[in-house]
Amino acid sequence: MKFINLYTFLGLLTTTTTSSIVNASRSKFYGDNDNRPKLFKILDDHVGTIKINLDHEIWTTMKKKTELEPWNAQVKGEKYGTNNATLEFFIKDQGGNSTENYKVILPPGKFNFQLGGKGSRNYSKPGYNIKLINESLYDVQVLRLRSNIRDNSSMREKLSSDMIYQLGIPTTSTNYVNVEVNGEDLGLYILTNKIRKDFIQRYFGDENTSNLYECKNDGTRFEDMSIGNFCENAKDELIDKKEDIQSFNQAINQAKSMEDIAKILDIDNFLKLIAFEFLTISWDHFLGYSHNYFWYKRKEDNKWMMLLNDFDETWGQDYSATLFFFFNEFSDKSYLPTPEKINISNLSIRDMDLDHKLLKYLIYDDDTHFRKILGEIVKKVFNPKVLFQRIDDIADLIREDVINSRTFDPSTGYAKGCFNILGFDPKWNITQWEDGINYGNWNSNRSLTTSYGLKFFIEERFKYICHTYGIDPETLELIEPRPKVSFWGIKNKYKASISGKDFYNDEFIKFSYPNLGKEDYQKDSYNANPEKNNKPTNYEIPKFRYELGKKYKPTSIVKLIGQFFDLNRVQSLSSSLKKLITHLLKNANKK
């Protein structure tokens, strides 16, 4: 399939970093039937400001309680905070001055302000939650202030929620605010809401629902009944009531066909979200780490549907084979290549899926329905024409605020709002932000953080999806009859080219793929023979875990680590990498 003239056809200037078209309002992206909370509509064309004032000693204690070492910060971290504070929300005019438009002031006792986040507690810039008491701020009761410090583009959360909105599926909304506490500038934050009863009432008309369950724990799956046993009802008073979710879990496990599953699960909703995870390499939701999602049972038809939240680890962010060392009892991913050789854009659904048997009936036995959904998503939103323009529009909105937020204090070496001096700190600067929204790929060994340039990732991922699923890259239509195609694999012959000396130890590594054109899958001769080239040539994908049954023996974590790093030279690795390996081995010894 040819891609040479694709971007000329799409009318893109892929070398530019800012939009050449200024929309009257970024809200146009959502169409005429925009049902998001009003707060996020207000912030489509403005970066808001939230000012908090509270007791000096409480704020000092709050900052001190962020100081936690990786990797158990999410376990040790307290949700410390106070309701004895004032809040002011406002937007600024074009001159940078505060306006009375949309201004809101909340006195003490009207809201709780506390530390937030889970995995993000391992990093230098903490997040916060603001929960209004019997109030809402322009339709939002819980405001989550997320630093998403790993993402050098500061856009992955925003692009993800926007994309899911385009799929017609309710999810959290996203925009941006600057935060100030007791006169201290904390810089730019990503503002989202939370999936709770007000969310369900807004999108489903279900008041005071008892049928919403949150799956927080890593590895929450159907096969071992952990969905039924560990997903928690969103109502605190019903947290131990699990009969309904357990019955759902059992019914899925007993299903033998797509028809069986369709009786209890909204298949279109589920496959659209699986398609989102697949397209964006979202490893931190259902397919991979199996958490950060909800199950909701609709009142009108008693069918279950999945809802996603937390989108910082998307669009290829931080993907690595090491992520799956913990969960190799479910799936053997030992074939995944090292970071220097992995071609992340060519990840297949099989590569991403940790052997969820549900997908056997919904995708692997016959992927016709899944392919149709992918085609619809590619045509509507997952293509360079739509996404590049969206990236440029968002960049124009937040650029000056990113510059301010990533200004480093020479006396401390930290950027604004970074209080966890024991945590990982990527130290992304404004140059890396510009690269991150375009074609520059960066690795920060300070924090085990890898950010692919968004436009690089989207462009290469789009090529793979169009090739593999038979989508015309110019018309964006499914090609019928579906063409047979050669297999595009994830293991490159040639290593990534790096800016430094050591991929794993240099503080910052900028990397690129100048030899992609030499890879087999890029050659016309390879693609001309799909009958012969229908599977990987330099690695083998193991059988599904559920096919092997008791014969399956997970590879030891020590052995898996040894495939990536020489354990005899661990001491020469970067401090953040040593912390990860120590953490992995400690957990391996517990099992």
TrEMBL record:
InterPro entries, per database record: Spore_coat_CotH_CotH2/3/7 (IPR014867)
Range of residues in the leader sequence: 1-24
Any matching Pfam family: CotH
UniProt keywords, alphabetically: Signal
Keyword DNA repair found: no
Protein origin, superkingdom: Eukaryota
Name used for this protein in its record: Coth-domain-containing protein
Taxonomic source organism: Anaeromyces robustus
